[in-house]
Protein 1
Amino acid sequence: MSHTLILRLAGPMQSWGVSSRFGIRETLAEPSKSGVIGLLCAALGWDRAEATHVIAGQERTLADLAAMCFGVRVIREGVLRRDYHTAQNVLRASAKLKPGKPANPGDLQTTVLSERYYLSDAHFLVGFESEDGDLLSALDAALAKPYWPLFLGRKSFVPTWPVRFELGEGTGPSVMRAPLTTALLTALDPALMPESIGDREQIWSGAAELSAQTVRLVLDAGTGKAQSPDAPGEYIPASRAQRSDVPLSFAPRRFAPREVVTYIRPTLVPD
């Protein structure tokens, strides 16, 4: 039986880079698999230098987390923004430091320029699918009481709403007994409810209507059909791409590629 852990990633700023080089720090249009797995590791207190970590009573590796099927439901696209940074006395990559001794003047760069891109006011639901319900429940418990602070791609990008996504009326766990696409498309996010609605029945009716406003889905290739629960027909594949965001190690940083498929809902044209 497949289970899916849902997380909410919403904030004024977030950045999910997978191929940044030198002075250009780019971002994807939605969260990366490596970035969200890194967020889970922060919640667990998993030191990046450690090859394994005990989760749900078992020694786990990054490969165990990376093997889970991953998907993103885009509720609100972020607006791409750019920051222009300058920094002085930055250590050169070729510098050879000696413990207890200051850096030589030649090891420092006078001025470093960089352009850093980020998403403004984006809202995503992301999911991890696994048949190991104990693993997902342990990850959910870690998100409820994270060991280290949780950030949206960079340390200065804090979430507006809790990353832990509570099911039901805000009292249940974040793990659904459903495949990834079903869980993502049927999850009702309380963060989307109008504050003016007070009646419980109206609340969930309003949340269901808002949840239908999915912009697009980005899923691991081979996940299966993206069936819409609230409109005729299915989401259709619009594009395929390869991304190097499957973490093999965070220290040193090594990643493997994966293929993703972006789904959109076809526009219904009246007769």
Protein 2
Amino acid sequence: MKQLRVGMIGYKFMGKAHSNAYRSLPMFFPQAALKPQMTAICGRNEAAVQEAAAQFGWQESVTDWRELVARDDIDLIDINAPSDAHKEIALAAAKAGKHIFCEKPLALSLADSREMLEAAEAAGILHMVGFNYRFSPAVQLVKKLVDSGRLGKIYHFRAWFLQDWILDPEFPLVWRLQKEIAGSGSHGDLGAHLIDLAHYLVGDMQEVIGMSETFVKERPLASTMTGLSARASADAPKGPVTVDDATLFLARFGNGALGSFEATRFAAGHRSTNAFEINGSLGSVRFDFERMNELDVYFTSDGEDVQGFRRVLATDPAHAYSEAWWPPGHTIGFEHTFTHEMLELSNAVSEGRQPVPNFRDGVKCQAVLEAVERSIDERRWIQISEM
């Protein structure tokens, strides 16, 4: 198996997920065209990135991403650093002729994401963006049902991504709550996944209108806290929260379908409820990532006496990726979506084609994110073509 030499920038949540995927790919998908070689991992904290390299299985660690991008022994740059770093790293990687995998959202703004796409296309490199939920077997089944026409004409796509991890007003002001670093809050972090699933499963959006709210306006500075679970004292210095805590919007698709979207970090009891429902003229489907191996399916053609949603366990060989894992009924988890993602990347690089989803999908998602923000500011419907 030929090798794909990887240099990765970032080593925390997504860094661990990507590292696990690189290590798992050749074991479970020996037919993958390229075997990832985990050449070097990069992070600003030397001790922490050295520890991550040893734990995750990277050959070495560095603290300067520019050094990593310039190396001749690396084919692919994997970017999972905070969002404000994506553009600069991607532009440098493209200039150096490296293929790029970049976590979502692609950039802080639509203009920046377009610049990244243009640079990648000008350099002739291959590029991919990290919308991993596409790669759940149950979501792949939804795609199959929609594309084959078994759900008929699509009328509705409704989606919600609900979390509660910042419900405590004393939770510290981490980078995800600062617009200059994250770009947006629940909208770009959670809503971006819903937007991509909508694009993937239903089609392009035509117009949107939205609303948002920041429920907790100030939070204790993270530098004053000893850990994310700690509580600040009453007189601890605070800083402003500059992103949304919750964003909701409506959409009209180009094919006439209607959409509703909700992303919030203030839904008590919801650790990570990433769910959607699609209604068509011939049936419906319901998916919730907290039960990611299951898909609820309803067909109008069923006899009246047995009509109703049925539970399909997407673990049989008929379902995408399932033959590589365990016997039917033996479920998989969150980490497996990243392995499937890297399978697509590996095969695309070997075949010389653009992986899917790629920077074009990232730009398309960013256009909707910004159209929603603009609609909130201007209190009106915004055409995606305006963006």
